[in-house]
Amino acid sequence: MPLYLFRSSDDKTINFMAEEKKVKNKNQLNIELPEDIADGVYSNLAIITHSNSEFIIDYVKIMPGLPKAKVKSRIVITPQHAKRLLRSLGDNIKKFEKQHGTIQESDGIQGIPMNFGGPTAQA
User: Fold this and answer.
1) CA angle centred on 31, ends 87 and 74, rounded to 5°
2) CB neighbours of 122 closer than 8 A, spacing ≥ 6?
3) Same domain, 94 and 59
4) Over the stretch 87-96, which tens digit does the pLDDT of each residue have?
5) pTM of the predicted structure, to 2 decimals
6) 53 and 90 co-located in one domain
7) pLDDT tens, 53-72?
8) Least confident among 49-58, 89-98, 111-120
9) Which of 1, 37, 53 has its CA nearest to residue 22?
10) Buried b (16+ CB within 10 A) or exposed e, 70-107
11) Helix or strand (DSSP H, E) at 98
């Protein structure tokens, strides 16, 4: 059964409801979004690995001209959730492109823009 996502007007509460029951009832899940998490973490690289029971997504922030980068966040999910995430991302990309046009991919080194298209930093 599909789930729908609803955000409150203050953007701090997320509600998931079953498609069949779009009124408040015991099938509703309220998820609190604390302010420190709501700001998010910027990432311009995701590294995905997997085992037989989980997918691990490491979100990394690469800075121009610096040879070292840090993992800013790690998410561990089941294979079933990974497949749902794939479908959901695909659906959201289609909707985004319908509204804003085709997303252009860069030609960075193996997809990673090491200098962000500008000059290399010098000390």
Assistant:
1) 60
2) 65
3) yes
4) 999 999 999 9
5) 0.64
6) yes
7) 999 999 999 998 899 999 99
8) 111-120
9) 1
10) eeeeeeeeeeeebeeeeeeeeeeeeeeeeeeeeeeeee
11) helix 79-100
Amino acid at 54: E
Give the Cα separation of 7 and 112 in Å (integer): 33
Which residues lie below 8 Å from residue 121, measured CB to CB, with a gap of 6+?
A: 64, 65, 66
Please state, in angstroms and as integers, the Cα–Cα distance from residue 21 to each residue in 14, 15, 25, 26, 28, following that order: 16, 12, 8, 10, 9
- Give yes or no: residues 8 and 54 share one domain: no
15, two tokens: 């509600």
* Domain of residue 49, residue span: 41-101
At 17, list the tokens.
Answer: 């409801």
Query: In whole angstroms, what is the distance from residue 7 CA to residue 15 CA?
Result: 6
